[in-house]
Amino acid sequence: MYLCAVKNADTRERILHRMYGDIHKNGFQGLRADKVVADMDITKGALYHYFPSKQSIGIAVVDEIIKPNYLAFYRALNQSIGHPIDQIKAHIVELSRIMDDENIALGCPLNNLIQEMSPIDEVFRLQLKSVIDGMYRSVADALRRGQAAGLVKENIDPDAVANFYLSSLEGSFGIAKVQKSVPMFRSSMDMLCQFMESLRK
Questions:
Q1: pTM of the predicted model, to two decimals?
Q2: Does residue 21 sit within a domain?
Q3: What CATH number did the domain enclosing 139 receive?
Q4: What is the distance between the alpha carbons of residues 102 and 185, in angstroms, rounded to a whole number?
Q5: What is the pLDDT of the chain when averaged over all its residues?
Q6: In total, how many domains does the chain have?
Q7: Residue 90 CB neighbour total at 10 angstroms
């Protein structure tokens, strides 16, 4: 999973990271922001000083925690001159390696919010879409560079592959979550690696 680490931070960042943890566990609609800050020994006044509404908390969690953590690999992929297949496979292998029972049970934070909030909140949907779009563009562009360099098969459609890659990745999180099965997730990642390998020229 794309781990979103908690670090030493100021009050706003501390609140935001605790909100992220609660959203990951209970969903955005299940978030009780007042209870979270009470458990932190922070006043409601401090909470509303930084976040005037519940929606503003959710959008900040997406923009400031989920988005940079999820896009870190893809930004590196944008700047890399290495073989795109090797780099994408290494990322898949790392996601498989760090997966554990707790992460599988809680599910992918991005996927959870997409499923929960996209149908009911257009602002949320667009913020979440921006994360997916960033991932998608990076993979498609990396494959195009690979084709230009003679490293990736010319007859593949980079956009279609990027869409399939993301669908497989996020779908695997969802299926493994409902099955509560780390082995199932790892098996899916192995298959995704095999597919990516098949694109090598």
A1: 0.90
A2: no
A3: 1.10.357.10
A4: 13
A5: 94
A6: 1
A7: 13
